[in-house]
From TrEMBL:
Residues 65-223 form the CP-type G domain. The gene is rsgA. Gene3D superfamilies: Nucleic acid-binding proteins, P-loop containing nucleotide triphosphate hydrolases, Probable gtpase engc, domain 3. This is Small ribosomal subunit biogenesis GTPase RsgA. InterPro entries: G_CP_dom (IPR030378), NA-bd_OB-fold (IPR012340), P-loop_NTPase (IPR027417), Ribosome_biogen_GTPase_RsgA (IPR004881), RsgA_GTPase_dom (IPR010914).
């Protein structure tokens, strides 16, 4: 069953007509953010007759069916990748992956680092500096103290934004603060493992009080990248570009080659080490091009 938000702001519980299911191949015949045609059955129930073409899509390879594309959300224009400073610790590997997935799906990424009330560490300043210099707005916020939330509100206003990130970073808590009256369930981070408990299990869209829509999503364990080839990963690392022209071998994968100017730039502190490490890990995880 799907909740459909009608133009008069009512929500209708809708089933998907069989003919729509059969008309689409793949694992996501309808998903959050889709524009749909609905026949109301009564005040609160309806049926989805048609899914309109998608303008944008945040997607990944489907779980267990990697040859198929799973659309996580449709028709959004912005993606807020949420991390936390500590508890759970900041993982830039996931940030890089989600930022790439956003760009593959025509969404503009912003980076939100939550829980700054818990303190910060030396690594954080470099992370903020690196992403900011790449042109991605990077906001330090706290859902608990309210720090940084005014700026976050400005970035969300009149946009359609999905909040994505590891479990326990505070996606639902942030949305509860941004939307008065919203009561998304939240759960403390496990003191044993330091990980979130995957509290949010459904993906859901909400209206912001001053215009715009936000989507809360279940914590990501991993973020697979759909149809990205090994040799195209560097396209998403514009911080390498300036140096890559000086690599001894052309083309250069910036991994094993001697005389790689990107690796030298990392050693000289001109390219952030974490970006190069994430790049290598993403490359390694992708199929070799045939
Ligand atoms: N100290 C501190 N704790 C926070 C902050 N934001 C959220 N939390 C806590 O972090 C825990 C996890 O928050 P959730 O909102 O459930 O996290 P989530 O990202 O929605 O997690 P999933 O739904 O599992 O993906 C809760 O105990 C929150 O109270 C913050 O800014 N500072
Ligand atoms: Mg949640
Ligand atoms: Zn190189």
């Amino acid at each position: 069953m799907f909740d459909v938000l009608a133009s008069d702001h009512r929500r209708l519980r809708c089933e998907l007509r069989q003919k729509v299911k059969f008309a689409t191949s793949g694992v996501s015949p309808v998903t959050v953010g889709d524009d749909v045609m609905v026949t109301p059955i009564d005040e609160t129930v309806g049926a989805i007759d048609k899914v309109l073409p998608r303008r944008t899509a945040f997607f990944r390879p489907a779980k267990l069916r990697e040859s198929e594309r799973q659309v996580i959300a449709a028709n959004l224009d912005r993606l807020a990748v949420v991390g936390s400073v500590v508890s759970p610790p900041l993982k830039t590997g996931l940030i890089d992956r989600v930022v790439i997935a956003a760009q593959l799906g025509q969404l503009t990424p912003i980076i939100v680092i939550n829980k700054v009330d818990l303190g910060s560490n030396g690594e954080l300043a470099e992370v903020v500096r690196t992403y900011t210099s790449l042109g991605f707005p990077t906001l330090l916020v706290s859902a608990i103290t309210g720090e940084g939330l005014e700026l976050l509100r400005e970035h969300l206003k009149d946009h359609r934004t999905i909040f994505a990130g590891h479990s326990g970073v505070g996606k639902s808590t942030l949305l509860n603060v941004l939307i008065p009256g919203l009561k998304q369930a939240t759960s403390e981070v496990s003191s044993h493992s330091g990980r979130g408990k995957h509290r949010t299990t459904t993906i859901e869209l909400f209206e912001l009080p001053h215009g715009g829509l936000v989507v809360d999503s279940p914590g990501l364990k991993v973020m697979g990248l759909w149809e990205l080839e090994r040799d195209d990963v560097a396209d998403y690392y514009p911080d390498f570009r300036l140096h890559a022209v000086d690599c001894r071998f052309q083309p250069c994968s910036h991994s094993h080659e001697p005389g790689c100017a990107v690796k030298i730039a990392v050693q000289e502190g001109k390219v952030s080490r974490f970006r190069h490490e994430n790049y290598l890990a993403i490359r390694e995880s992708l199929e070799i091009d045939l």
